[in-house]
Amino acid sequence: MGLLSLGTPLDWPETQALASHVRKHGIEQLLSLWYKVRDRRGDRVLWGDELEYIVVCFDEETKNATLSLRQGEILKVLAESHADSCEKIQDGLEDQIPTFHPEYGRYMLESTPGAPYGASPKELSAVERNMRMRRRIARRHLKPNEVPLTLTSFPRLGVTDGVFLDDPTLVPNGKASQSLFLPDDIINQHARFPTLTANIRKRKGSKVAINLPIFVDEKTPQPFIDPTIPWDRNLFPGDSEAKEGAAKPDHIYMDSMGFGMGCCCLQVTFQACSIHEARAIYDQLVPVTPIILALTAASPAYRGYLADVDARWSVISGAVDDRTPEERGLKPLEGNKNGTRMRMNKSRYDSVDSYLSLESANRPEYSDNPFPVDEGVRARLEEAGMDPVLSSHFAHLFIRDPLVIFSEMVDQDDSSSMDHFENIQSTNWQTMRFKPPPLGDKIGWRVEVRSMEVQVTDFENAAFSVFVVLLTRAILSFRLNFYMPISKVDVNMLRAQKRDAVGQEKFYFRKDVYRTRERHSAARSAAHSREPSVNGNGPTSGGSAAAAGGSNGPARFFEGRYPTPSGSRAASPAPWLPPVEEEYDEFTINELINGKSAPADDANEDGASSSSSSSSSSSFPGLVPLVSSYLDALDIDVSTRAEMDAYLSLVSARANGTLVTAATWIRRYIRSHPAYKGDSVVNQEINYDLCKTLDRVERGEEEAPGFLPEGYAERRRKQEVKEAGGAAAAKAAAAAAAAAEAKKDLATANGDGDGEEGKPLSPLTAAAAATSNAAGVGAGVGVKDDGRDLMLQAAHADAQAKKQADGP
What we know:
The chain has a domain at 14-514 and 685-710: Creatine Kinase, Chain A, domain 2, CATH 3.30.590. The strands form 6 sheets. Strands 1, 2, 3, 4, 5, 6, 9, 14 and 15 form a 9-stranded antiparallel beta sheet that branches. 39% of the residues lie in helices and 9% in strands. With 808 residues, the protein is α+β, with helices and mostly antiparallel strands.
C-alpha cells in the first residue's frame, strides 16, 4: 500500500506545476534522513509479509460469483475489533495483533502480521499459522455468502456480458478512469486513488492500453476481435481509442488502472543489519525475482477470457504507465513540452535497472540497461556525500513526476517530514524496492521483494515467503554471487509471464555462484574479521564492534568495489576479469531450483574427452539445495525441520512439474469444465464453480492432486481443529473429512485411485506427523470462534513463537 495522506488533492495542472518542487524537497528530505541513518548498524534481521485478498460474494440463486465492494465497511469492523482486542490484551502484546489495510480495489483487503517475524527456523514455522489466523479473522467479519480468496486476478473483472459486482446497478461511466469496462465505484474511496487514476490518464494523454494475447483454443475465433467491447460508446473523448488501434486483434483489451492495481500479490520486506547488507541483499535478489514470478504464476484469465500468459506483471505495468508519447519514443522530444523531460524506457511499475551494492563482485558491466537519471538530483546527492551508485539509483527514481499532491502537504519541514520523498519513492513500483528507515529509530534499512503472485492457500504463501527468507540467509552465510547483466534479468521477466514458463522456458542465470576466485579476495579478507551469522539473528562473534559503531557482519563483507569516478555510472571493466558473457547461461526453472549436474565429458574417436560450450555443459547447485545446506548447519528440532522441508518440497515440486502452478491448475480447471465451449471464454457458471472450488481447496474440504502436495487437505483440517478450537470447528472438520473420504472412495470406484499401500510419507504428511507428535494435533485451544478472540489468540501465539525461538 502506497502513501496515504489526508487532505484535498490538487487537479493535474496544479500537480504538474509543483513537480519540481516535490522532487527538490523530496531529495532534501532524503538527505536530512541520510545524515542521521547512513551509519546505522546492528539491527536484527526481521521481516514481514503482505497478503492481499479478493472478497468474493456468492449468489446461490443465480449461481454467480461477484466482487463485494464492502471494503470500507469490512475494514471499519476489523478496526473496531483490533481496538477492542488491544484493550483486552495483557503483557504488552498489542503489537502482536494482526492488522488489515485498504487496497486500490474496494473488493480487496490487505493483511500484515501485527509484528515482524524473526528469521530463525523456529520463528519461520509460525508464519503459516499467522497467515491462516489472518484469513480466519477476515472471514469472521464477512457476510455468510462472502469469502476472502487469495486470487491474483478475478477472471471476470470488467466483463460486459453479465454482472461481476455485488451491486448490479453500477455502470462504467466514471470520470476518473473513463473506462469502457470498470465503473469508478470499484476504486477505493480515499481521495488518493481516484485522483491517481485520473492523473495517470491525464499525464499520459490517453487512457492506459493493456493488451494480453488471447489463448487460442479449438473454437476461438481467428482472428479474435472481441465482440464484448462497446466499440461505439461516445461518452468520453477517449472512447474512440479502442477502435482507433488501442485494442489489438487477437488480444484481450483493458483500459483502466483497476485491471492492474486490482490484482493481488504476495510481498515480503526484510530489515537488514545495515545499509551495506541491505544493498547486497537487494542486488542478489534482483536476478531471483523473475524466477519466483514464474513459480508463483497464478493469473491466466482476464475480463472473461483465457489469456496466453500466466502472470499479471505486464497487466499491472501497463495499468499505471503514465509516460507520454515522447517519453515512450513514439514522438520526438520537444523541450519540456507537457512535462516531458527525457526518454523513459519503462513504466513506473516494472523491473529494476541497476544494482546498488559497493562490493567488488558488482561489476559495472552488470548494470547495462538504459538508465535515465535526473542530473540535478544526482549532483545534489553526490555533493552531499552519497556515493555515485546510490545517488544514481535515487536520481533514476526521481525522473518521475508526483501523481497526487494534497494542497495541505505542499509546504513541509524537510527535517521532520518524508512525504515528498515517499510521494515519488512509493509510486516507483518495481520488482525490488530499497527502503530507507522511516523517521524515528525503531526500523532500519529494508528491502522489499515485489514480484510474487499471491497463492491460493496459506500453505503456499508461507512456503514461498519462507523460501525467500531462507534464501537471503543462505546468500549471506555462503557469500553467494548471483550477479548477471540486468538486461538478462529483463529478458527473464518477459519469459516468466509466458504460459507454462516453468515447464517451457529457459532463464539466464549466473553459472558460478560461489565466491572462490582471487578476484574477490578484497571482499573475502574484509569478511574474515566477522562472518555473517548462520541463524539470522546477528553476528556469531564480535558483538562489541557493532555496539561501538563498527561494521556489523555482512556490512564489512559488502563494502569494497571497483573505483567509480564521481559523476559517472560505471568504471571500466577490470582487465583481469573474463567477459561478462562467459559468466551466465540459460537454465530451466527445474535446474535453477533443484540443481543440475554437469554431464560427463563425451569421448571422441581418439579417446580424448570433449566438452560442449552449450548450456547443457553448465552445472548449477540449485537454490533449494543451497537453502537445505544452510539449514543443515543449524541446530533445529525435528518438527521445525519437517516444516521447513515441507515448504522447500513444494517449491521443488513446482519447479520440476510434479505439482503445477496455480495458473496451470486454474487454466486446466476452466478448460475441463462442462460449461466451457473451447472458445477461450470464462463464463459466469465456470467462474462461480472455480471460486467455490478454490475456497473449498483452501479450507481442506477438497483435494487438489497435482496442484497441492499429498496430505494437504487432511493437514489443513487438523490445523483448523487445533487453531480454531471448539466443537463447531471439530464438527466442521469432521464433515469435511467425511466429504473428502467419500470423494476418494468414489474416485477409487471409478478406477482413479492408485490403491497403493505402504507408500512413504510425503514431506507435507511427514511435517504434519512431526508437528502432531510435538504439539498434539487436535488439541483445541478453548477460545470462542469470533474475530476479537481470534485476534487475541494470534497475539498470544505470535508471542509464544518468538519466546520459543529466543530460547530459555
